[in-house]
UniProtKB/TrEMBL annotation:
PANTHER family: C-TYPE LECTIN DOMAIN-CONTAINING PROTEIN, LITHOSTATHINE
C-type lectin domain ranges (all copies): 119-215
Name by which UniProt lists this protein: C-type lectin domain-containing protein
InterPro entries from the UniProt entry: C-type_lectin-like, C-type_lectin-like/link_sf, Ca-Dep_Lectins_ImmuneDev, CTDL_fold
Biological classification of the source: Eukaryota, Metazoa, Ecdysozoa, Nematoda, Chromadorea
Organism: Toxocara canis
C-alpha cells in the first residue's frame, strides 16, 4: 500500500500560531499589538521550518475558499498578504479596530524518511507484502499521526503513483499487480474517500479504477 505523511506538514501543525496546511504550503497567521517589520521572519526564528516564510500569495479562488473555511484564521481580522485573488493585499476582514495581522506562508524544504518518495507536499511509500484492505489501512494509519492510505484526487498524482508502483513491479508482461488505495466502494454503487469517511461523500476522480472490483 502506498502511504502518505509529511514531516513538513507536522512541523506546520505544531507551530505556536494559527496554521493551515494545503498543497504542500504552510499558511501561518501572525497577530501583534504593534507593527512588525519582518513578521514572517519571526516565525522562522521560533520554529523548525526549513525555510524563512514570506507574506502569503493567495493565487486561486480554491485556495481562498479553503483558507476561509479552515476555521484557522479569525474572520474579524484583516490579515496582510503579498497578494490576493482580487488584486488586494488583504485577507479576511477589510478592516479591524486594533492590532496588526499578517498571513505568512512557507513551502519548506521537503524531506522524507528513508524509503519514502516525495510528491506534492507528501511522502509516499510502497509496501509489496499482500494484505487485506483493512490490514493495509491499519498499517498506513499507524505510521504517524498524519499518515493514511494514499488517496488519488487528480491525474498528476495518479500518474506519479502509477509510475512509482511500477518501479517495484517484477512482472515481465507489463500488466502490473493491483495495489490498495484509500478509496472504497460503497454498497456496490459509488466510491468514497476513507479519510474522515462519509458514505454520502462521493469522489469525483477515479481514473485509477482498472478492474471490475476496483483493485
Amino acid at each position: 500500500c502506498p502511504i502518505l505523511g509529511s514531516r513538513f506538514e507536522y512541523a506546520c501543525q505544531v507551530l505556536p500560531y494559527r496554521t493551515f496546511f494545503a498543497g504542500g504550503r504552510c499558511f501561518i497567521g501572525v497577530t501583534s499589538n504593534e507593527h512588525l517589520r519582518d513578521p514572517c521572519e519571526e516565525i522562522f526564528i521560533n520554529s523548525v521550518l526549513g525555510t524563512v516564510p514570506k507574506l502569503a500569495v493567495i493565487d486561486s479562488d480554491e485556495l481562498l475558499t479553503a483558507l476561509k473555511q479552515s476555521n484557522s484564521f479569525n474572520p474579524k481580522r484583516s490579515y496582510k498578504v503579498a497578494a490576493n485573488t482580487d488584486g488586494s493585499q488583504v485577507f479576511m476582514a477589510r478592516s479591524q479596530t486594533s492590532g496588526y495581522s499578517y498571513l505568512c506562508e512557507s513551502t519548506g524544504k521537503q524531506t522524507c524518511p528513508p524509503g519514502y518518495e516525495p510528491w506534492n507536499g507528501n511522502c509516499y511509500r510502497f509496501f509489496s507484502e499482500p494484505k487485506t484492505f483493512e490490514e493495509a489501512a491499519e498499517i498506513c494509519g499507524s505510521i504517524s499521526a498524519f499518515s493514511t492510505m494514499a488517496v488519488i484526487e487528480d491525474e498528476p498524482t495518479n500518474r506519479f503513483l502509477a509510475s512509482y508502483a511500477r518501479s517495484f513491479e517484477s512482472s515481465s508482461d507489463d500488466t502490473g499487480s493491483p495495489v490498495w488505495v484509500g478509496q472504497m466502494y460503497v454498497n456496490d454503487q459509488y466510491w468514497a474517500d476513507i479519510r474522515n469517511f462519509d458514505a454520502n461523500d462521493k469522489i469525483s476522480f477515479y481514473q485509477w479504477f482498472t478492474t471490475p472490483n476496483g483493485w
